[in-house]
């Protein structure tokens, strides 16, 4: 804990030296609406923080992308967020957290960057020993959750299933479509056959499917949403860095790389309000920042 505190102190000193223009904004990004689960937790746990949210909807879904593609996408997003002087970034995307976070942290050493996988893994081992993970194909193939869970508890057993159809169905607003239930049953059955006691949402989109998933898995199975745990980690990091905001927040700013309209339509359901959403072309912005 002492090493973590000293490391955070060094990051805080670097931030002060590197950012003459102070910022009260936390950057949050995902491939689409999945990160709204993290945004809702930020509203609940850190109500005084101002948020900049970016959905990379033009390049969704991330789950079928290569590691090099994901790294480049994240690099562009963080360069753009740095141009907005964010004080912290939360990767509200398991695929990015699995494939890009270590590389990107090295490229942006003065910016605190939090991923969702380690907080989710820590929460999972606190509730069970037979742990199932549903995620995108890329996250499942990376084996990131298994590695993170076993690092925390080597006695745990982990089974992972890639669910490529979930994100498109959620982005299309087809939560209660009978087809979605059939797809969910197909993905979950291999995990139920292993008698799991814990199920991790290995993609921030998936909590939107909670009514569907809860109707299929036994009530004894604990559902782990890493969103609440990454926000708890963010709160702790802000406290250590002395960056927590105590005054009322500014309105959340929403940006997407694709057509804003579908994002607005779905966000209205999850947030209970109609967000103002701007479109931004990230590669062009990233090139301008780099030059």
Automatic annotation (TrEMBL):
Metabolic or biological pathway, per its Swiss-Prot or TrEMBL entry: Cell wall biogenesis; peptidoglycan biosynthesis
Q: Where does substrate bind?
A: 30-31, 62-63, 94-95, 204-205
Enzyme Commission no: 5.1.1.3
Q: Which UniProt keywords apply?
A: Cell shape, Cell wall biogenesis/degradation, Isomerase, Peptidoglycan synthesis
Pfam families documented for this protein: Asp_Glu_race (PF01177)
Q: What Gene3D superfamilies does this protein's entry cite?
A: 3.40.50.1860
The record's InterPro entries line, in alphabetical order, gives: Asp/Glu/hydantoin_racemase, Asp/Glu_race, Asp/Glu_racemase_AS_1, Asp/Glu_racemase_AS_2, Glu_race
In the record, the note on similarity to other proteins reads:
Belongs to the aspartate/glutamate racemases family.
Check the record and name the PANTHER family matching this protein.
GLUTAMATE RACEMASE
Instruction: Show the NCBIfam families listed in the entry.
Output: glut_race (TIGR00067)
Function, in words: Provides the (R)-glutamate required for cell wall biosynthesis.
Protein name (database record): Glutamate racemase
Q: Which organism is it from?
A: Myxacorys almedinensis A
Q: What lineage is on file?
A: Bacteria, Bacillati, Cyanobacteriota, Cyanophyceae, Leptolyngbyales
């Amino acid at each position: 804990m002492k090493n973590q505190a000293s490391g955070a102190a060094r990051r805080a000193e670097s931030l002060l030296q590197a950012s003459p223009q102070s910022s009260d904004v936390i950057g949050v990004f995902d491939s689409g609406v999945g990160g709204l689960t993290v945004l809702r937790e930020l509203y609940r746990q850190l109500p005084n923080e101002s948020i900049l949210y970016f959905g990379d909807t033009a390049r969704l879904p991330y789950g079928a992308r290569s590691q090099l593609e994901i790294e480049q996408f994240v690099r562009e997003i963080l360069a753009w967020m740095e141009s907005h002087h964010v004080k912290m970034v939360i990767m509200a995307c398991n695929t990015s957290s699995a494939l890009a976070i270590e590389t990107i942290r090295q490229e942006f050493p003065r910016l605190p960057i939090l991923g969702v996988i380690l907080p989710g893994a820590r929460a999972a081992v606190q509730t069970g020993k037979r742990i199932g993970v549903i995620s995108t194909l890329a996250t499942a193939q990376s084996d990131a959750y298994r590695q993170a869970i076993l690092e925390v508890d080597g006695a745990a057993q982990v089974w992972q299933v890639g669910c490529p159809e979930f994100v498109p169905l959620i982005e299309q607003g087809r939560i209660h479509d009978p087809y979605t239930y059939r797809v969910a049953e197909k993905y979950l059955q291999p995990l139920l056959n292993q008698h799991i006691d814990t199920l991790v949402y290995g993609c921030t989109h998936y909590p939107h499917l909670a009514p569907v998933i809860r109707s299929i898995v036994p009530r004894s199975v604990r559902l782990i949403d890493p969103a609440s745990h990454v926000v708890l980690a963010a709160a702790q990091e802000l406290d250590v860095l002395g960056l927590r905001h105590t005054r009322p927040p500014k309105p959340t700013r929403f940006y997407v790389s694709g057509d804003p309209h579908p994002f607005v339509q779905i966000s209205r359901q999850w947030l209970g309000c109609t967000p103002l959403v701007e479109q931004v072309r990230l590669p062009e912005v990233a090139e301008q920042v780099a030059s």
